[in-house]
Specification:
Strand content: 15-25%
Order of helices and strands: EHEHEEHEHHEEEHEHEHEHH
Largest sheet: 9 strands, parallel
Shape: globular
Number of helices: 10
Strand order of the largest sheet: 3-2-1-11-10-9-8-5-4
């Protein structure tokens, strides 16, 4: 089991200097990764830090922990630009990037405010094509693409990622919608979120159901990560029990973030990070 710090980069957490301090705290305290959100607004007037600038700053200040967006909404990105950014960050971090991807949530206002499509089926098509484009460009071999949404002339796109055969791709989806989890089975990991008002946390039994569904559709024998966001607060003994429950359900990563929907005072959150991964 690996444990990561998952930071909604809003408010005080939008400051690159604060994110770097958290990344250093996490690495020194023994956490396995640090991940940030990728949004434009979420709500009007929100203070938001650019995830790619934050991750680059964190990569330059650390040596061991995994880093990545969890998750980037690919339909509002140019896939070739995302492919280029990811390779550069993979180089800067010496092969520590994990690329979390999804169709984007919430669509209002993150998509509507900028005149971008909110149609879920259309965004799913764009995500699928983008993943083909990104994977093809990362090979460093001649590649072209002609789809409904994207078209590329044949080209060799260099440099290639440090990580081979590719930068790990974790696919997010809202359970019980099935299509995102069929998509995840084709890649390197799954980050499930429970559908519903305010996105309630999954239960271990629900994660076990997701793991069974994805495993039946897996292609290939490579490593596959199962990521869950969990509250590991409270007594140390209870935290250890929770880690064991999630492990039995099939989780390979647990992400922990600031409590109270991201409103936990920054110094309280930093103190928790400095205390190290709970339950281990």
């Amino acid at each position: 089991m690996k444990l990561g710090v998952n930071v909604p980069n809003f408010g005080v957490f939008a400051d690159p200097r604060m994110l770097v301090a958290l990344a250093v705290d996490a690495e020194e305290a023994g956490w396995d990764g640090l991940f940030v959100w990728d949004h434009m607004l979420v709500w009007d007037g929100n203070v938001v830090g650019d995830p790619w600038i934050l991750l680059a700053a964190a990569a330059a200040a650390t040596e061991r922990i995994a880093l990545g967006p969890m998750v980037t909404p690919v339909p509002r990105r140019r896939p070739w630009k995302l492919a280029r950014e990811a390779v550069s960050l993979d180089q800067l971090s010496n092969g520590r990037l994990i690329l979390g991807v999804g169709i984007g949530f919430p669509p209002d206002p993150d998509f509507t405010a900028f005149g971008e499509t909110v149609d879920e089926r259309l965004r799913a098509e764009m995500l699928d094509e983008s993943l083909q484009v990104i994977s093809g460009l990362w090979t460093g071999r001649p590649f072209s693409f002609a789809g409904r949404h994207y078209r590329l002339d044949e080209m060799v796109f260099l440099p290639t990622p440090v990580q081979q055969p590719r930068i790990p791709i974790w696919v997010a989806g809202m359970w019980p919608n099935r299509r995102p989890f069929r998509r995840a089975a084709r890649f390197d990991g799954v980050f499930p979120i429970k559908a519903g008002q305010d996105m309630p946390m999954l239960e271990p039994a629900e994660l076990a159901e997701i793991v069974t569904y994805v495993e039946r559709r897996r292609e290939g024998e490579g490593p596959f990560e199962v990521v869950t966001y969990a509250d590991l607060g409270g007594e140390p003994g209870r935290a250890a029990e929770a880690v064991e429950e999630w492990a039995e359900a099939g989780a390979t990563w647990i992400h922990v973030g600031p409590s109270d929907y991201g409103m936990e005072p920054v110094e309280e959150f930093r103190a928790r990070i400095r205390n190290g991964p709970p339950g281990l």
